[in-house]
Each structure stands twice: as C-alpha cells, then as structure tokens.
Model the fold of this input.
Amino acid sequence: PEKAVVLWQSSRLDLSATYEKAPEMLKVQGSVIGTLGNFSASIGKAKSKKTFNVSAIVAAALKNGTVLRYAAELPPDKRKILYVDTEQSPYHCLKVARRILRMAGLPTNQNHENLEFLALRKYTPEERIEIVKQAIYRTDHIGLVVIDGIRDMVYDINSPSESTHVISLLMTWTDERQIHIHTILHQNKGDENARGHIGTELSNKAETVLLVEKDETDADISTVRAAPV
Done:
C-alpha cells in the first residue's frame, strides 16, 4: 500500500506546471517518426529487408545526420546507441553491425564508441529482458535502442499477460531513461497486422509503426510506409 500511495501521489498531473513536448529525434522527409520517451516499430513479412531498413535508421542516428531518407538528431548527451539482436548468430550480427558503420561512412573494422551491439540468441526470454534492462539503465548517454526480434522476449506471442508485460517494460524504460526504442516484428502471413498478441499490443502503443514490403516488380527493392492503424 505504501508504494502504491507514493506512485499515486507522484502520478498526479500538476495543471499549473508546464510539461515539455517530447524531443524529436527521427524524421522522414520532415515527418516525425521517433521522439525521446517513446517507442516505435518496423513490421514486415519474412525477407522484406526489415533489418536493412533499421540499419539505415541506426546509421543516421550514429552520424547524427541523414542516411537514405532518415534524418536523425540526437542530443549531445544521448548519442549512444544500443542494438539488440535476439535471433541471429554472432557472425550475422557482425555483418549487420558493419553494414550500419558502412552506411554511416565509418570504419567497419573497429568498434565505435557510440554503438553497442548485443547478440542474445542463446538466452531465454527472461534473460534477454534482464540483459536489455541492465544495458539500458547502466549505459551512460544512451539515446536509441533497437530490439531486433521483440518476439523473442516472450515465450508465447499470443499470451496477453506476456505481451502486456513486455510492452509495459518498453513504456517504462523509454519514460524513465528518456530514450527511443525501435523494435522489429514479423507480420502475419495472411494480412498486414503485426504477428500475435505482442504485435497487437505493440501496434496499439507505439507512436509509429513502419511497414516494410518487398516491391512487387523488383525483389531487390523494398518500400517503407506507415502501417495502417
């Protein structure tokens, strides 16, 4: 009860106060798709180049400039980026990390002080959650976190309780650390919705959901648009 009372009192909105608008950190051609204190998502079918699309977002944030059509502007004290991959081997994670560096115009054969890459394939969902939490709270100057494979932070993608728990964590982490989290999730095979209950919760709570699709006439091209709400 004591904790609940403290939370209740700290949650009161002070109507005489002024609250700052969430700082914008990611845009596409002038349209804001990411702010600090919020989270967003990329969804798409298998092999739609979701990870490549997110690589461009991370590269833009890393150079604090424009890559492809993504323009990033992180505050000076929030330039650190955490990239979490839950499903690929270290070999393939290294390829992604080097592609990000290459897209940002940086050397690809050495670590960069503002990019930390975690390969979490071998861990359980609980372990992945705890690792990501520790990284978020113990990394100074963190501004952007990418979770490539949020599906792997739950055992059952159709579990309402697991899904609500993970999405609640995203809301807590982004608010308390004033960071932006971008997640990646597969689409259902039969429609444009994000897969499972975790996808429904993600789509309902995310400030932006990007839909990555293969071009129907050229398999080497993917298009990105706002997912239908």
